[in-house]
Amino acid sequence: MINKIKEEFNKHFPGTVYQSAGRINLIGEHTDYNGGFVFPGAIDKCITAEIKPNGLGKARVYSIDIDEYTEFGFEEADAPSQQWAKYIFGVCREIIKRDGKVEGFDAVFSGNVPLGAGLSSSAALESCFAFAMNDLFNNNKFAKMELAKIGQMTEHHYCGVNCGVMDQFASIFGKKDQLIRLDCRSMDYEYFPMKLEGYSLVLLDSRVKHELVDSPYNKRRESCERVAKKLGLETLRDATFEDLEKIKGEISAEDYMRAHFVIGEKQRVLDVCDALVKGDLATVGERMYQTHEGLSKEYEVSCEELDYLNDIAKECGVTGSRIMGGGFGGCTINLVKDDVRDKFVETAVGKFEEKYGHKPEVYDVILSEGAHKVE
Ligand code: GLA
Fold first, then answer.
1. In whole angstroms, how far apart are CA 178 and each of 56, 123, 196, 267, 338?
2. Chain centroid to CA 305
3. Is 167 designated active site?
4. Which one from 67, 135, 167, 214 is the annotated catalytic residue?
5. Distance 83 CA to ligand 1 centre (A)
6. Sorting pLDDT into bands at 50, 70 and 90, what band is 116?
7. How many whole angstroms separate alpha carbon 170 and alpha carbon 64?
8. Helices marked H in the chain — which ranges?
9. Given ligand 1 and candidates 159, 163, 222, 301, which is best to mutate, with the most ligand atoms within 8 Å of its CB?
10. CA atoms within 13 A on the CB side of 50
11. Protein residue whose Cα sits closest to atom 9 of ligand 1
């Protein structure tokens, strides 16, 4: 009897369900905070939340996957202690700071974006709640780009990561079967249908996440900012290899390498977009390998396991392969010809397990809708 009443209550007075996706990035890594280009898309792995206003002036939230419950108010001093809850709290605070409204709500959420895989599970969570708060309490007054920035600033102000806007942008703007090239300086973007006849994109998740002390992501960003400043530029977007050579003696060898990667990466994104339009997947693949090399040797955000996966891809004749996302673990993204795919996946999984004692996860990339209301 009691269960029946509970069930009927929930059936007649349900919350609203929202979803936002994880992302891939075909090319353009560590370029977003340098005012460069990125080329991401949202994937069919997402965070889903049911949310209902509660009239209590506070949030009551349950994470199914972590099996934790928390409550928090919306003042700065009310920050929750759980990392996962900080993403939601931060989004609420950033909305309030922009003169938006956040009222009390109850929420339950779950996701299938693998954690620590470089597929932006945190951006998916931020984007899901930013989209929901905008819809539930703000009459959708915030434009989608503002929602992406709300997620990005949540990372800066509540999670200690001075990230660019790519992940939140992709999570919100994603469309089925489309990649999106974003110019992170002008914030102009363009959708590109992903037509890969005879090829597919496969992710190999190393399932390693190297513990990072000293926030190496933020350190990479600081290197780039120092070089830009030395050149009298706002960001490295306008820097050329020639500019960099001129100041080589005045900057550290490390800063030089970081900037050298970023300047090269900017052009690689544009090359890949042109090549995709022409159906020239050989060039797309070549640039992907070059990006891996740069991320590994110059930007130094790869790791042994990911370099190993990249080597195996080369050996198997995979068209393009590289570490994806911020680095220090996570996935490689592989552009693979259909007739090579099965052999490659089998070889990579087998060899990796032999060497590291566990299998990498294999995900086929399916480009999907970004943030939206489900029902
Ligand atoms: C992380 C950040 C992004 C971007 C990538 C590297 O995913 O959140 O803003 O800088 O790393 O391209």
1. 41, 19, 11, 21, 20
2. 20
3. yes
4. 167
5. 19
6. confident
7. 24
8. 2-12, 83-97, 121-137, 144-154, 166-173, 216-230, 241-246, 253-278, 281-297, 304-315, 338-356
9. 163
10. 8
11. 164
Q: Is a pLDDT exceeding 90 seen at residue 294?
A: yes
Confidence at 212, pLDDT banded by 50, 70, 90: low
Are 30 and 299 spatial neighbours (Cβ–Cβ below 8 Å)? yes
Q: What is the pLDDT of residue 89?
A: 98
Q: How confident is the model at residue 128 (pLDDT cuts 50, 70, 90)?
A: very high
**Dihedral, CA of residue 211, residue 215, residue 219 and residue 222, to nearest 10:** 150
Share of the chain above pLDDT 70, in %: 99
pLDDT value at 278 more than 70: yes
Which atom of ligand 1 sits closest to the CA of residue 166?
A: 9
Q: pLDDT > 90: what percent of the chain? A: 94
Cα(115) to centroid of ligand 1, in Å?
15
Angle, in degrees to the nearest 10, between helices 166-173 and 121-137 = 60
Q: What are the backbone dihedrals phi and psi of residue 360, each rounded to the nearest 5 degrees, phi first?
A: -75, 150
Amino acid 234: pLDDT = 97
Q: Which uninterrupted H or E stretch holds 68?
A: strand 68-72
Q: What is the mean pLDDT of residues 311-328?
A: 97
Query: Whose Cα sits closest to atom 8 in ligand 1?
Result: 163
Amino acid at 191: Y
Integer angstrom CA distances of residue 93 from 49, 71, 103, 147, 157 = 19, 15, 11, 13, 10
State the pLDDT at residue 213.
Answer: 63
Strand partners, 261: none
* Distance from the alpha carbon of residue 222 to the mean position of ligand 1, in angstroms: 14
pLDDT at residue 199 in the model: 95
For residues 252-258, average pLDDT: 98
**Nearest atom of ligand 1 to the alpha carbon of 164:** 9
Residue 237: closest CA among 4, 22, 15, 30: 30
